[in-house]
Amino acid sequence: NGKLEVNPVRHATLAFRWAGKTILIDPVGGKAPLVKFGTPDLILVTDIHGDHLNVETLEALDTKKAKIIMPQAAADKMPEKFTTQIDVLNNGESKERFGITVEAIPMYNLREEAKQFHEKGRGNGYVLTLGNQRVYFSGDTEDIPEMRSLENIDKAFVCMNLPYTMTPESAADGVLAFAPKQVYPYHFRGNPDVSDVSKFKKIVNEKNSDIEVVQLDWYPNEDY
Protein backbone atom coordinates (compact mmCIF):
# COMPACT_ATOMS: atom_id res chain seq x y z
CA ASN A 1 0.00 0.00 0.00
CA GLY A 2 2.93 2.33 -0.49
CA LYS A 3 6.07 3.03 1.48
CA LEU A 4 5.79 5.46 4.37
CA GLU A 5 8.54 8.09 4.31
CA VAL A 6 9.29 9.63 7.72
CA ASN A 7 10.96 13.04 7.87
CA PRO A 8 11.80 14.57 11.25
CA VAL A 9 11.74 18.37 11.21
CA ARG A 10 12.16 19.64 14.76
CA HIS A 11 10.97 18.70 18.26
CA ALA A 12 7.31 17.73 17.62
CA THR A 13 7.14 18.62 13.92
CA LEU A 14 7.44 15.98 11.24
CA ALA A 15 6.44 15.29 7.65
CA PHE A 16 5.21 12.07 6.10
CA ARG A 17 4.92 11.08 2.49
CA TRP A 18 2.66 8.16 1.69
CA ALA A 19 0.93 7.09 -1.54
CA GLY A 20 1.59 10.45 -3.14
CA LYS A 21 0.25 12.42 -0.18
CA THR A 22 2.13 14.76 2.13
CA ILE A 23 1.13 14.82 5.80
CA LEU A 24 2.43 17.40 8.28
CA ILE A 25 2.22 16.90 12.02
CA ASP A 26 2.29 20.01 14.23
CA PRO A 27 3.92 22.29 11.65
CA VAL A 28 5.68 25.14 13.47
CA GLY A 29 8.88 27.13 12.98
CA GLY A 30 7.96 28.92 9.78
CA LYS A 31 7.78 27.94 6.13
CA ALA A 32 11.47 27.36 5.42
CA PRO A 33 11.98 23.85 6.90
CA LEU A 34 8.69 22.56 5.49
CA VAL A 35 8.45 23.68 1.85
CA LYS A 36 10.83 20.97 0.64
CA PHE A 37 8.15 18.38 1.39
CA GLY A 38 5.77 19.94 -1.12
CA THR A 39 2.20 21.14 -0.79
CA PRO A 40 0.56 19.40 2.18
CA ASP A 41 -2.58 17.34 1.72
CA LEU A 42 -3.27 16.66 5.38
CA ILE A 43 -2.19 18.62 8.46
CA LEU A 44 -2.64 17.33 12.01
CA VAL A 45 -2.40 19.58 15.05
CA THR A 46 -2.33 18.02 18.50
CA ASP A 47 -2.71 20.94 20.94
CA ILE A 48 -2.77 24.71 21.49
CA HIS A 49 0.79 25.21 22.74
CA GLY A 50 3.26 27.04 20.51
CA ASP A 51 5.38 23.98 19.78
CA HIS A 52 2.31 22.31 18.24
CA LEU A 53 0.12 25.10 16.88
CA ASN A 54 1.61 28.10 15.11
CA VAL A 55 -0.88 30.09 13.06
CA GLU A 56 1.85 32.10 11.33
CA THR A 57 3.42 28.90 9.96
CA LEU A 58 0.07 27.63 8.70
CA GLU A 59 -0.58 30.97 7.02
CA ALA A 60 2.85 30.92 5.36
CA LEU A 61 2.42 27.45 3.87
CA ASP A 62 0.46 26.69 0.70
CA THR A 63 -2.49 24.93 2.32
CA LYS A 64 -5.15 25.56 -0.32
CA LYS A 65 -5.73 21.84 -0.95
CA ALA A 66 -5.13 20.69 2.63
CA LYS A 67 -7.53 19.41 5.23
CA ILE A 68 -6.52 20.40 8.75
CA ILE A 69 -7.47 18.11 11.63
CA MET A 70 -7.28 19.51 15.14
CA PRO A 71 -9.08 19.55 18.50
CA GLN A 72 -11.69 22.22 19.19
CA ALA A 73 -9.37 24.19 21.48
CA ALA A 74 -6.92 24.61 18.59
CA ALA A 75 -9.67 25.37 16.06
CA ASP A 76 -10.85 28.19 18.33
CA LYS A 77 -7.49 29.91 17.78
CA MET A 78 -7.54 29.69 13.98
CA PRO A 79 -8.43 32.61 11.68
CA GLU A 80 -11.85 32.42 10.05
CA LYS A 81 -10.34 31.93 6.59
CA PHE A 82 -9.37 28.36 7.55
CA THR A 83 -12.87 27.35 8.67
CA THR A 84 -13.80 25.33 5.58
CA GLN A 85 -10.54 23.38 5.76
CA ILE A 86 -10.74 22.39 9.42
CA ASP A 87 -12.06 19.07 10.68
CA VAL A 88 -12.51 19.18 14.44
CA LEU A 89 -11.91 15.82 16.10
CA ASN A 90 -12.62 15.18 19.76
CA ASN A 91 -11.03 12.36 21.74
CA GLY A 92 -12.41 9.05 20.52
CA GLU A 93 -13.61 10.34 17.15
CA SER A 94 -12.23 9.41 13.73
CA LYS A 95 -12.36 10.67 10.17
CA GLU A 96 -11.08 9.49 6.80
CA ARG A 97 -9.31 11.90 4.48
CA PHE A 98 -7.37 11.03 1.30
CA GLY A 99 -7.64 7.33 2.09
CA ILE A 100 -6.12 7.88 5.54
CA THR A 101 -8.12 7.13 8.67
CA VAL A 102 -7.32 9.46 11.57
CA GLU A 103 -8.38 8.53 15.11
CA ALA A 104 -8.13 11.07 17.93
CA ILE A 105 -6.55 9.54 21.05
CA PRO A 106 -6.58 11.31 24.44
CA MET A 107 -3.38 13.01 25.63
CA TYR A 108 -3.07 14.45 29.12
CA ASN A 109 -1.02 14.66 32.31
CA LEU A 110 -1.47 12.31 35.26
CA ARG A 111 0.81 13.89 37.88
CA GLU A 112 -0.96 16.40 40.11
CA GLU A 113 1.82 18.95 39.69
CA ALA A 114 1.51 18.72 35.89
CA LYS A 115 -2.24 18.53 35.29
CA GLN A 116 -2.42 22.23 34.47
CA PHE A 117 -0.22 21.67 31.40
CA HIS A 118 -2.50 19.28 29.51
CA GLU A 119 -5.95 18.56 30.87
CA LYS A 120 -7.85 15.55 29.57
CA GLY A 121 -10.04 16.26 26.56
CA ARG A 122 -8.29 19.38 25.26
CA GLY A 123 -5.66 17.90 22.96
CA ASN A 124 -5.32 14.88 20.70
CA GLY A 125 -2.84 12.17 20.09
CA TYR A 126 -3.54 10.44 16.78
CA VAL A 127 -3.53 6.99 15.23
CA LEU A 128 -3.25 7.04 11.44
CA THR A 129 -4.14 4.05 9.33
CA LEU A 130 -2.25 4.24 6.04
CA GLY A 131 -3.03 1.15 4.02
CA ASN A 132 -1.91 -1.73 6.22
CA GLN A 133 0.16 0.44 8.58
CA ARG A 134 -0.98 1.98 11.86
CA VAL A 135 1.02 4.94 13.17
CA TYR A 136 0.60 6.55 16.61
CA PHE A 137 1.57 10.08 17.67
CA SER A 138 1.43 10.57 21.40
CA GLY A 139 1.21 14.35 21.47
CA ASP A 140 2.00 15.80 24.90
CA THR A 141 0.98 13.05 27.26
CA GLU A 142 1.99 10.87 30.14
CA ASP A 143 1.75 7.10 30.40
CA ILE A 144 -2.05 7.09 30.19
CA PRO A 145 -4.35 4.03 30.00
CA GLU A 146 -5.49 5.01 26.50
CA MET A 147 -1.92 4.76 25.25
CA ARG A 148 -1.20 1.51 27.06
CA SER A 149 -4.28 -0.13 25.52
CA LEU A 150 -3.40 0.61 21.89
CA GLU A 151 -3.22 -2.40 19.59
CA ASN A 152 -1.48 -3.31 16.34
CA ILE A 153 0.72 -0.22 16.14
CA ASP A 154 3.51 -0.38 13.57
CA LYS A 155 5.20 2.94 14.35
CA ALA A 156 4.83 4.97 17.53
CA PHE A 157 6.14 8.50 18.06
CA VAL A 158 6.39 8.96 21.82
CA CYS A 159 7.27 12.12 23.76
CA MET A 160 9.35 12.36 26.94
CA ASN A 161 10.33 15.58 28.66
CA LEU A 162 9.70 17.05 32.08
CA PRO A 163 7.88 18.87 33.47
CA TYR A 164 5.41 18.82 30.59
CA THR A 165 5.12 15.15 29.60
CA MET A 166 6.90 12.15 31.15
CA THR A 167 10.22 10.62 32.05
CA PRO A 168 12.07 8.14 29.80
CA GLU A 169 11.24 5.44 32.34
CA SER A 170 7.51 6.18 32.21
CA ALA A 171 7.58 6.42 28.41
CA ALA A 172 9.35 3.06 28.20
CA ASP A 173 6.81 1.43 30.52
CA GLY A 174 3.94 2.70 28.36
CA VAL A 175 5.59 1.54 25.16
CA LEU A 176 6.21 -1.91 26.59
CA ALA A 177 2.50 -2.16 27.40
CA PHE A 178 1.30 -1.71 23.80
CA ALA A 179 4.44 -3.05 22.08
CA PRO A 180 4.63 -1.28 18.72
CA LYS A 181 6.91 -2.76 16.09
CA GLN A 182 8.93 0.46 16.03
CA VAL A 183 9.10 3.39 18.42
CA TYR A 184 10.51 6.81 17.61
CA PRO A 185 11.41 8.98 20.62
CA TYR A 186 10.52 12.61 19.83
CA HIS A 187 9.67 15.80 21.74
CA PHE A 188 12.42 15.01 24.26
CA ARG A 189 14.18 18.33 24.76
CA GLY A 190 13.09 21.20 26.95
CA ASN A 191 14.16 23.45 29.76
CA PRO A 192 15.76 22.75 32.12
CA ASP A 193 16.06 19.03 31.42
CA VAL A 194 16.86 16.98 28.33
CA SER A 195 15.48 13.46 28.42
CA ASP A 196 17.89 10.54 28.26
CA VAL A 197 16.77 8.77 25.10
CA SER A 198 19.51 6.14 25.48
CA LYS A 199 18.03 5.17 28.84
CA PHE A 200 14.61 4.83 27.21
CA LYS A 201 16.06 2.56 24.52
CA LYS A 202 17.92 0.43 27.07
CA ILE A 203 14.79 -0.16 29.19
CA VAL A 204 12.64 -1.03 26.18
CA ASN A 205 15.12 -3.42 24.59
CA GLU A 206 16.08 -5.16 27.83
CA LYS A 207 12.43 -6.15 28.30
CA ASN A 208 11.34 -6.56 24.68
CA SER A 209 14.05 -6.88 22.06
CA ASP A 210 11.43 -7.17 19.30
CA ILE A 211 10.59 -3.46 19.57
CA GLU A 212 12.91 -1.45 17.33
CA VAL A 213 13.86 1.92 18.83
CA VAL A 214 14.51 4.34 15.96
CA GLN A 215 16.48 7.46 16.89
CA LEU A 216 16.21 10.30 14.39
CA ASP A 217 17.70 13.79 14.45
CA TRP A 218 14.93 16.01 15.83
CA TYR A 219 17.28 18.85 16.84
CA PRO A 220 19.59 19.46 13.86
CA ASN A 221 20.57 22.96 14.98
CA GLU A 222 21.03 22.13 18.67
CA ASP A 223 18.96 25.21 19.45
CA TYR A 224 16.12 23.88 21.56
Please describe what this structure looks like.
- With 224 residues, the chain is of the alpha/beta class.
- The protein contains five helices and 13 strands.
- A seven-stranded mixed beta sheet has the order 7-8-9-10-11-12-13.
- Helix 4 packs parallel to helix 5.
- The longest helix has 11 residues, at 168-178.
- It is globular and about 50 Å long.
- The chain starts with a strand and ends in an 11-residue tail after the last strand.
- The model has no long low-confidence stretch (mean pLDDT 93).
The residue-averaged pLDDT reads 93
Radius of gyration: 16 Å
Structural class: alpha/beta
| First-last Cα distance | 36 Å
Helical content class: 10-25%
Beta-strand segment tally: 13
Principal-axes shape call: globular
Within the largest sheet, what's the order of strands?
Answer: 7-8-9-10-11-12-13
Number of helices: 5
Q: Could you list the spans in which at least 5 consecutive residues all have pLDDT below 50?
A: none
Main β-sheet description:
7 strands, mixed
Strand content: 25-35%
